[in-house]
Design goal:
single chain, mainly beta, Jelly Rolls, 7-stranded antiparallel β-sheet, 5-stranded mixed β-sheet, about 5% helix
């Protein structure tokens, strides 16, 4: 799975394009949609908004120009921002690349399109529909045909467009005044202003910088050629766990197998200051002074949540640690010892019930209820909710006394032979010392009442003796919800809910796309209306909207709300001074203040201290979708023409 993801993403970046010998076929947008995707992050120079990434967690590829950035969504559509904010319409794009002031894209039918600056004919794309990969940099472009030949166009002042003959090329990349390509035998060739390449024929990826070539070897190590600048861009980091590379303007990025990113070279504007995340799936070094990356996140609720941990773990998990079983090479989340692992799922549709199912791997010498060596406890708890399982497990021969386990009962209380209820015994290959040190797999499923839009599941081991002696893991985690059809949460399914659904007709809004149950098919249509009518006039317990709380420390930030949610603003105040907070009137009608502000004194004595300050608490309800600046002034209302003592502003987005 990881190899497939790397191929699709790297091709789309235009940094490395690889043809799988003569049998290569590029993925369609539908096929791209099955790969890992996530959320954008950018860092470095932001003078034209090139680091103001668009919202969403459906991005599969990225590219950066001088003062702009470009991204490809999972549905095959494009979005561009910064100095170039336009992008062609359509959802049939499969790869992207950026020059200084232009963009290049490859369509699913193998044809090319380009837009932006037109100097040197760089947007005059060649005809044909047999292209499989693209690259761009500064003022020229490259494209790789299915037959392994290369075509180049744009500025050719240093011979960067004088492509070598042959049809054995499998990868391409463009520098400032040079170009580089990888041959089918794994060797590299460079032409134009720079002809130096690292020696060898074991390369699997390439990326051309302004005056150097960065390459990835089959063993996961890095190599570089050229680059005699003061920025030392050729001083590649040591290691053989790299899986993807990218170059910017005199700076370089490399993605490790664990999802972390390392950067080196010029760092004038923070372009090498990588965010502290460990779940990146794609990287791009922009030609200007910024960098872009995609990090894995929880996908939208279009179908139930599922993870088999064969790929990169998203940030819905508190730990991204994965392992493979000695027997069968089954990927799983773990191994874990005496610790907690949290699964957090956000932005759930309206629902009343949750079902979670998973495989629990009990590894090595668990001692069950034994009071000398244990008890070895495992627990699953809903954060701020019920404990679903609190029990012990034993991986010892059943004929050994005093090592019974509590499962399938609870601990304390349960008293069963080891392996009771296990779906698999000794199938994972954990046979090392201490003996007998086997393994067992339990397939568990729990259903519980739940109505919040955030779900947190806390998995934990307790009292274990060390990961080499007693450990555990998770596999095939699935979460399903029972969809609520009481859209406005008033306790009854009625005509108001029908009108709300009709207002979202032919959209893909997950709140109203409820059929087929539980997650719909991507469009609000007659199937959803039929399910709604089946529940007409049923009484449903009202769902209280979750409150979002902000205070002075959140001033100037952005907050996102769903319609119906309550925004609580708490600000320090002292009414004895005559000052009070007041909202600045706005033409926007997305927030509605709920009554007068409440004053909460800081002194709670009886009677309260005279002259003591406290907090003014405002409550706003999100009533309509849109965006606005919520502004409150701290002033004396009777003092006209006097600047307020303090101002509080908040950018509010209501979905």
């Amino acid at each position: 799975m990881k190899k497939t993801i790397s191929l699709v993403l790297v091709l789309a970046l235009g940094l490395t394009a690889k043809v799988a010998n003569a049998d290569f076929t590029f993925g369609t947008p539908d096929e791209i949609g099955t790969q890992a995707h996530g959320t954008l992050v950018a860092w470095g120079l932001n003078n034209h908004g090139q680091c103001n990434v668009p919202r969403g967690n459906d991005f599969v590829a990225i590219s950066g120009g001088h003062w702009h950035s470009l991204a490809l969504r999972v549905d095959g559509s494009l979005v561009s921002w910064g100095s170039i904010s336009e992008a062609p319409l359509g959802n049939d794009f499969v790869a992207i690349a950026s020059g200084s002031g232009h963009n290049l894209a490859l369509k699913a039918d193998g044809s090319l399109t380009a837009w932006g600056g037109t100097a040197y004919g760089k947007t005059d794309v060649p005809e044909g529909n047999d292209f499989v990969a693209i690259a761009a940099r500064t003022e020229h472009n490259l494209a790789l045909r299915a037959d392994g030949s290369i075509v180049a166009w744009g500025l050719n002042n240093a011979g960067q467009c004088d492509v070598p003959e042959g049809n054995d090329f499998v990868a391409i990349s463009a520098g400032h005044g040079h170009s580089v390509a990888q041959k089918a035998d794994g060797s590299l060739v460079s032409w134009g202003q720079l002809t130096e390449v690292p020696p060898g024929n074991d390369f699997v990826a390439i990326s051309a910088g302004p005056m150097h070539n960065l390459a990835l070897r089959a063993d996961g190590s890095l190599a570089s050629g050229g680059g005699k600048s003061e920025w030392h861009e050729c001083n590649v980091p040591v290691g053989n766990d790299f899986v993807q590379i990218a170059t910017g303007s005199w700076h370089c990025l490399a993605l490790r197998a664990d999802g972390s990113v390392v950067a080196w070279g010029r760092n004038l504007y923070g372009e090498c200051d990588v965010p502290t995340k460990r779940n990146f799936v794609a990287i791009a070094g922009a030609e200007g002074f910024h960098s872009i990356a995609i990090f894995a996140t929880q996908p939208d609720w279009r179908g139930f949540y599922f993870n088999d941990f064969e790929g990169i773990v998203g940030d819905e998990w508190s730990s991204s640690k994965t392992d493979e079983t000695p027997a069968g090479a089954r990927g799983f989340l773990g191994q874990f010892g005496d610790e907690n692992v949290m699964l957090t799922l956000r932005d759930l549709p309206a629902h009343t019930e949750v079902t979670v199912s998973f495989e629990l791997f009990i590894l090595r010498s668990w001692d069950g209820n034994n009071q000398t060596h244990g008890p070895d406890v495992w627990q699953l708890k809903v954060d701020e909710g019920p404990t679903l399982l609190h029990t012990t497990f034993a991986n010892v021969p059943p004929d050994i006394k005093d090592f019974n386990q509590a499962y399938p009962g609870d601990y304390p209380g349960g008293d069963y032979l080891p392996y009771t209820g296990a779906a698999e015994i000794k199938t994972l290959g954990y046979t090392e010392i201490p003996s007998p040190a086997p393994d067992s797999v339990y397939r568990l499923s729990y259903t519980f009442a739940h109505a919040e839009n955030i779900l947190k599941l806390d998995f934990s081991g307790q009292g274990l003796q060390g990961i080499k002696d007693e450990s555990w893991g998770l596999d095939n985690v699935k979460v399903m919800i029972s969809t609520s059809v009481d859209f406005n949460g008033d306790g009854i399914v009625d005509c108001t809910d029908i009108c709300m659904m009709i207002a979202h007709w032919n959209t893909d809004d997950p709140l109203y796309d409820i059929a087929p149950v539980p997650f719909g098919d991507g469009i609000v249509d007659v199937q959803d209306l039929i399910v709604l009518v089946e529940h007409l006039f049923e009484g449903i317990p009202p769902v209280e909207p979750e409150e979002v709380n902000v205070d002075e420390e959140d001033a100037g930030s952005q907050v996102e709300l769903e319609q119906g949610q309550i925004l609580v603003v708490t600000l320090k105040s002292n009414p004895t001074t005559g000052y009070r907070w007041e909202q600045v009137e706005s033409q926007d009608s997305i927030l509605e203040q709920m009554g007068e502000a409440e004053f909460k004194p800081s002194d709670t004595g009886e009677p309260p201290l005279v002259g003591a300050g406290g907090w003014e608490i405002f409550r706003f309800k999100a009533v309509n979708a849109g965006q606005m600046i919520l502004q409150l002034l701290y002033h004396r209302p009777w003092e006209e023409g006097v600047e307020p003592f303090e101002t509080f502003s908040l950018w509010v987005v209501v979905n």
